[in-house]
Amino acid sequence: MKAIRRFTVRPVLPEPLRPLSDLARNLRWSWHAGTRDLFRSVDPGRWAAAGGDPMRLLGSVPTERLTELAGDRDFLDRLAAVADDLDTYMTGERWYQRQSGRLPAAVAYFSPEFGITAALPQYSGGLGILAGDHLKAASDLGAPLIGVGLLYRHGYFRQSLSRDGWQQEHYPVLDPHELPLDQLKEADGAPAQITLALPGDRSLRARVWVAQVGRIPLLLLDSDIEENDLIERGVTDRLYGGGSEHRLLQEMLLGIGGVRAVRAYCRLTGHAAPEVFHTNEGHAGFLGLERMAELRAEGLDFDAALEAVRAGTVFTTHTPVPAGIDRFDRELVARHFGPHAELPDLEVDRILRLGMETYPGGEPNLFNMAVMGLRLAQRANGVSLLHGQVSREMFAGLWPGFDPEEVPITSVTNGVHAPTWVAPEVYRLGARQIGTQRAEEALSIGDSDRWDSVADIPDQDIWDLRRSLRELLVLEVRERLRASWRQRGAGTAELGWIDGVLDPDVLTIGFARRVPSYKRLTLMLRDRDRLMDLLLHPDRPVQIVVAGKAHPADDGGKRLIQELVRFADDPRVRHRIVFLPDYGMAMAQKLYPGCDIWLNNPLRPLEACGTSGMKAALNGGLNLSVLDGWWDEWFQPDFGWAIPTADGAGTDPDRRDDIEAAALYDLLEQRVTRAFYERGRSGLPDRWIEMVRRTLSLLGPKVLAGRMVREYVDRLYTPAAHAHRAMTADAARELAEWKAAVRGAWHGVTVDHVETSVASATAELGSTLALRVRVGLGRLRPEDVEVQAVAGRVDEEDRITEAAAVPLKPVGAPGAAGEWVYEGPLSLDRTGPFGYTVRVLPSHRLLASGAELGLVAVPPEDVAEAAGLLMR
């Protein structure tokens, strides 16, 4: 029989056990081993059955067991120690509090998904896991973030396989009352509610749930409430589900509703108001519009409000391809804003202009969320050095006249939260080497001093650790594979072969990620005979564990999964290669430590960062990857292997896959397997162990989310907070008026004449050129511009590379025609082909970059040729 109504019955804990509730409701347990060990000791069997979820555990423990624990002095002492440790963690001084300078009082961090723990399934893949790791690392550092997202009633889908290997999706219902969440409530106890206006006099209402992620509150908006009509209740039904309008409403609730939720949370709890708003990808971009509407209510016009909002906004882009960005029809967006919908005080045409692709190659009828994000943020970044470069090229149309390298998008390479992803066995080995306190600091903050101690760990200990982790993975794989085959309809009698799947002494390769086509799940199948030879080699076999989900609407991705599953079902190789369905955090935490090699073979440069290989590295796994994302930045032969890229202009996709697959097989056959199986005098694989050691000691401190968050604080959050404080209402009006004046007068800015003190085409290293430039400023003044000499090496087409800009100074008064003369020295500090040019940029004390307005004036060709701009 099916229940007609569902309740959540919470356990009543005996008074001595009340701290267990607080520990369960703070998600720090998900990365704090001591707290998890305490909960495991409550009832090991039920802990395992609850999937390591304290809330589910406490809801299942019999009253008799709770009564027994309430009288167990040893347990109560452990409980008190863990509770005291959490209190110290929550209130004590940490890295952020020890910094000098005026750091942000608070930062609001918006993301459409957050991967904190499998017990709170609100993530689909890398973006969410990164967001979760960002919050955890901020908590460990004491950085005052407020996370903002949506609470999806079905989360992302659960995955199983049909008998023939086709992906099947399931959407279990999540009850917020059974999750580690608390409702945000008004002073009178009523649930706090956020309301958005919709066309046709309708409303979208949401309540706010709070997940406590260590020191960080994570606010999750939920539209599935009785006050909403059926359509509005479904806005937060699924992560990345529904059509275009459904997605638009989700993103309006996330951005606009999210700001309102932050304001309510700060009002009700006394939390410091954010000085910086960080948009993690374009989904939350509408938050800037809500903040502009707040400032309009305080008397600022649209342009001044825009400048004030931009000053304190950071935008992070995660996609290296335009197709990965949310874009909406302009008419759909226009219908949801204005007098009869949301944000009536903002002019609809001005809102639309913020997101329109008004640049060469753009589609002017589409509203682009990333373009709006960039226009609403004074600071922007990609998530690896290579991705920063790709992003500057992709969005260069927003800054016409500037070379891609000058587009104001920097990069902060992603990191991963080591306490979440490092296996307990790895942590214990480190703690034994340097002590518990230093090991915790090494994982959360990270510096080379603490990681250098890996050099002192004996080879045998490292090899024994890797073997034990591999053995644990083998057991996990067999259990999951058996469950998967039962879901596929197999009977117990058919599954005896699973007891022989994988071998703890065989080189183990892992490949797990989302399954869009560019990640090339099936590249390993390109030459099946060669792959079989690798799997079944009599002396140097390999075994492969594969996992991943395709988007429910991506039949192409599902076909790739089916192709791989059918290969893995072959009785000849099924003991050496497996596909595990329902990839998620719980599986990942077993998979990364147990793999010797982490394989990544995307089409370069389509992987923005690719943090899964970082998690493997923190457990001593070696990377075998295309030079993309973070691996392009940090690869060294000490750490692993680089798969060559066949990206020549004349290489078609099929041939490229053939070439790169052949290179992958070559590396495995000739280098990887030999390093793993060859033994030195000690009987151990000396070369392999040394690579593991160098991976841990040299890569370890780099791949940490603690390093990433510290970079965000130093390079983006703190400058944004300073810009926010400087952008008073008067300053915002001044900057807006100045920008309007400069844009209106820029057509009158010219570079009329350039001359130098050197007439020949050669010069000596260390000599100095005297530059003299005559410019016309039209209606502008010298203080409105900066005249620069830009110099550097030149390539075969005389384009300046490795450019450095040198400001020139005005001399004397303007000429009769209003022209100004600028002069300055230019040092010749590099040998070889060298060149320079001159340009004029807008200049104002409140600009973050000279490229901010996208305006530049350069010499016309006749002036450039007369100046003799190149020396060889």
Automatic annotation (TrEMBL):
Keywords: Glycosyltransferase, Transferase. Its EC number is 2.4.1.1. It comes from the Bacteria. It is an enzyme of class 2 (transferase). This is Starch phosphorylase.
